[in-house]
Amino acid sequence: MSNLDLRPSPSLCGGSSRTGPVRDLQPGKQVPLGESTVVRRLLPNLGRRMVGAWCFVDHYGPDDIVDQPGMQVPPHPHMGLSTVSWLHDGEVLHRDSLGSLQTVRPRELGLMTSGRAIAHSEESPHGHGPLLHGAQLWVALPDAHRDTAPHFEHHTDLPLITGGGGLAATVILGELDGATSPGTTYSPLVGADLTLTAGTDTRLPLDPDFEYAALTISGETEVDGVRLAPGALLYLGCGRAELPLRAHSDSGLLLLGGEPFEEEIVMWWNFVGRTHEDIARARDDWSSGTRFGEVLGYDGDRLSAPELPPGPLKPRGRTR
Length: 320
Hints:
single chain; 320 residues; 26 strands
């Protein structure tokens, strides 16, 4: 998924930011994506730029796309990050400059690591279903791995944690309660899809060294006593050995976490770098048709890069 803002603001991220347990409700904003999709952009926001290495979160739907084209995101570049596609309803057809062609369906992991450079497109396939609902997330790559070779992974068999109290958890990425996703990671983190039946009142074990956030996908839940409606992101801080969860209706949550990202990064448009020069070079390479390759088979033009801001992009520590 792309940031389609023609005037994207630089996101000054990273740096040590270990806080104890908190309950910090993060505001999102409505952002148009492609021809007919509007998303709730929850990270980055004015109050928080990252949760562990998670640096970008869009939640979309559920949208009725019976008479609509659905998701239509033309070819665009990525650098220095991994993208995670996660669906509750619908299908997304992924194409990339490596030649990958894959339809990602609900509860399947579409994981694309851009490394030094990749381009891809995302679209609802012809004959798509009536609904589109899911999330698109980015993970910043640490400096030691940001120039790794690009690759795409599709995993349909993900570990499921079940227990008493009406909670089931699919481990999308990383590790949770002893279960590990097959998706490739480059820093300690976790992403999990939590399903809670109405009346659930339970506690989920966590790693106290991680910071966490919870995103309500559907239904109404209480996360550590805070009642969340769909589309709400609650930042939870570090130092938690467990997380109290209650569901007032059948509900779905995304749990995101990881060790606080100690490095300083600059995120602009679809790129994660360390300096202004990193970003400017990537933009020039995309505009000149070098480095990122070509996405074949998409019916339409690729995205053009927006103009850089007038001043230099500077990496800084995470600010609030």
